[in-house]
Each structure stands twice: as structure tokens, then as C-alpha cells.
């Protein structure tokens, strides 16, 4: 069943923000992003795609972004050789669109703050005020924590593993799908693949 991969049509974006693990950003004029999206979605073909980026090391949701769409671009499911699998259905394409993507060697600022606070708290001369600032910091994108102890002491990098997943957070009344048949051959040429997609009822 694909139904668990998206929020039903009659659900609102406000329902999405109820989950404690989600991060919601404030936009211009302190207008919540949820309200802004509600104002922009009107027609029967309009829907919303949500993209969630999470750190597997610290379980933090690093970003939650939304994008409006009128036509959903789907790629046919291919095998390891790049050939479209036989019997590929629209449900298969939708599941492939929302599959969890694993990212290695990702730099998570939350993990960096955790590692830095542990490292400096174990030093012989501990600056409790600076260590506490590292532990309580939440402005990872704009903070100056890397300069608290001098650039020569905070040059290490923390490699994390992350996951990225797309979801149809608001499904339109009429879902328009664009099958992406174009692909790049081994010779670097743009080719169109023959697609015979099974339509589920």
C-alpha cells in the first residue's frame, strides 16, 4: 500500500507540524510557512512535496522543506543495469519516488556541537561558560561556536550519516503525473526509454 507514504488530501499542512520530530522554520514577516503554503495552494492540480533531511547519528531532523507542484515528475523503476523493470506500475514509481535515501559523510552541525562540548569539557582547564554555550546552542546554521576556542582548536570534522526522504504532504484532487523517460547513456548521449507502465486500479 502506498497510502502510508503521504498525508491524505483532506489533511492540512497543520497536521504535519504536530509531530514533535519536525522542524518548522519561520519566514519573512514572522509568517509561519504552513500559513504561507495554505495561501498559495488553490487549484485541483496543486499539491505539495515535503523533503525531510535527518541525521542517523543523533536522530535530529536537520531540515524540512516544502515545494509546490502542479505535475509530479516520476522516474520509472530501473534495475542495476539501468533498464526499466518489467511490470513497473504507477504505484511502484510512487514508492520509488518516496524511498529513503542514505547519505554518507554528511556534516551534521548538531553532532559537531555534541562532539565539541564533550571534548572541551574533558580538558584540564575547562571554560564552563563556553562549554555550556556549545551544549545549549540551537542556531547551528548561523552560530559562531566554532570560534569560541580559537580556529586552531576546532578544525576537526565530524562525519555523520544522514537520510533524505520525499513525501507528498498534500495530495491534489487530481494528480497529474509526468513520466521521466529521458536518461543518459554510457556514451553520454540523451536517450528516451520506451516506457510501458502498468496502470493500477
TrEMBL record:
Catalytic activity line of the entry:
Thiol-dependent hydrolysis of ester, thioester, amide, peptide and isopeptide bonds formed by the C-terminal Gly of ubiquitin (a 76-residue protein attached to proteins as an intracellular targeting signal)
InterPro entries from the entry?
Papain-like_cys_pep_sf, Peptidase_C19, Peptidase_C19_UCH
Highest rank taxon of the organism: Eukaryota
The Peptidase C19 ubiquitin carboxyl-terminal hydrolase domain extends over: 31-186
Which BP terms from GO are recorded?
Answer: protein deubiquitination; proteolysis
UniProt-recorded Gene Ontology molecular function terms: cysteine-type deubiquitinase activity
User: Which keywords does this chain's UniProt record carry?
Assistant: Hydrolase, Protease, Thiol protease, Ubl conjugation pathway
Q: Does the keyword Acetylation apply?
A: no
Task: Enumerate the Gene3D superfamilies for this protein.
Answer: Cysteine proteinases
Cross-referenced Pfam families, in alphabetical order? UCH (PF00443)
The protein's name is: ubiquitinyl hydrolase 1
Amino acid at each position: 500500500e502506498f497510502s502510508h507514504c503521504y498525508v491524505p488530501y483532506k489533511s492540512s499542512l497543520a497536521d504535519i507540524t504536530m509531530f514533535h520530530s519536525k522542524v518548522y522554520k519561520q519566514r519573512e514577516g514572522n509568517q509561519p510557512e504552513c500559513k504561507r503554503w495554505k495561501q498559495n495552494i488553490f487549484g485541483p492540480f496543486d499539491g505539495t512535496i515535503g523533503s525531510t533531511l535527518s541525521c542517523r547519528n543523533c536522530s535530529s531532523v536537520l531540515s524540512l522543506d516544502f515545494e509546490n507542484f502542479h505535475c509530479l515528475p516520476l522516474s520509472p523503476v530501473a534495475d542495476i543495469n539501468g533498464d526499466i523493470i518489467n511490470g513497473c506500475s504507477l504505484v511502484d514509481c510512487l514508492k520509488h519516488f518516496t524511498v529513503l535515501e542514505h547519505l554518507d559523510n554528511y556534516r551534521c552541525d548538531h553532532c559537531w556541537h555534541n562532539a565539541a562540548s564533550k571534548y572541551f569539557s574533558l580538558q584540564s582547564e575547562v571554560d564552563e561558560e563556553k562549554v555550556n554555550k556549545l551544549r545549549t546552542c540551537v542556531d547551528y546554521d548561523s552560530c559562531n561556536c566554532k570560534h569560541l576556542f580559537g580556529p586552531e582548536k576546532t578544525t576537526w570534522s565530524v562525519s555523520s550519516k544522514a537520510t533524505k526522504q520525499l513525501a507528498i504532504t498534500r495530495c491534489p484532487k487530481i494528480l497529474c503525473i509526468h513520466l521521466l523517460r529521458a536518461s543518459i547513456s554510457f556514451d553520454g548521449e540523451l536517450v528516451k526509454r520506451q516506457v510501458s507502465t502498468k496502470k493500477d486500479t
